Amino acid sequence: MNMKKLLVCIAIAAFSAASACLAADGLNAASAAAAAVPYRTLTPQEAKLQMDQQTNLVVVDVRTQEEYAAGHIPSAVLLPVEQIEAKADSVAKVLPDKNAEIFVYCRSGKRAGRAAAALTEQGYTNVYSIGGIMDWPYEVVK
């Protein structure tokens, strides 16, 4: 009888320890997921509203020179994602203020996400991905 009680107690203790570890892993995974996306996203409508109301934000097109020339958001500056990810000197020249509001976009949104993540890793604090120009229903400059 004492042996059964001992085995039951050991089983309960092992189950409790395993449950606590799994719960901690879940919290760590949630924390890692939150840290993996340090930038924010805006819809084209939200971005346009802020662009119309604010004059101190920077709109960055992270596509290629050819894509930029084919059509871009008015006032957008070209800074290809490859330069941002390589931490090129051009990043600091185009974006000298690490606290400025920065809206990044590309063709579909994928490169914008990469660029936004790279900028936040480089210390920029107000970075927003506004997706892709394919979803931009407003004026573009050619």
The chain-level structural class is alpha/beta
Q: From the coordinates shown, what is the CATH architecture of the largest domain?
A: 3-Layer(aba) Sandwich
Rg over alpha carbons: 23 Å
Number of strands: 5
Mean pLDDT: 85
| Helix fraction by DSSP (H/I, runs of at least 4) | 40-55%
What distance lies between the first and last C-alpha atoms, to the nearest angstrom?
85 Å
- CATH superfamily grouping of the largest domain: Rhodanese-like domain
Please indicate the percent range of residues in DSSP E strands (runs of 2 or more).
15-25%
Compressed to H and E, one letter per element, the order equals HEHEHEHHEHE
- Backbone shape: elongated
Keywords: Signal
Organism: Megasphaera stantonii
Protein name: Rhodanese-like domain-containing protein
Signal peptide: 1-23
Question: In words, what does this structure look like?
Answer:
Keywords: Signal. InterPro entries: GlpE_sulfurtransferase, Rhodanese-like_dom, Rhodanese-like_dom_sf. The chain is of the alpha/beta class. The chain folds into two domains: 1-36; 40-135, Rhodanese-like domain (Oxidized Rhodanese, domain 1, 3-Layer(aba) Sandwich), CATH 3.40.250.10. The protein has helices at 2-36, 44-53, 65-70, 81-85, 89-94, 110-121, and strands at residues 40-41, 57-61, 77-78, 101-106, 126-132. The longest helix is centred in the N-terminal third of the chain and has 35 residues, at 2-36. The chain is elongated, with a radius of gyration of 23 Å. It has a five-stranded parallel beta sheet with strand order 1-5-4-2-3, with helices on both faces. 52% of the residues lie in helices and 15% in strands. Strand 4, helix 6 (110-121) and strand 5 form a beta-alpha-beta unit.
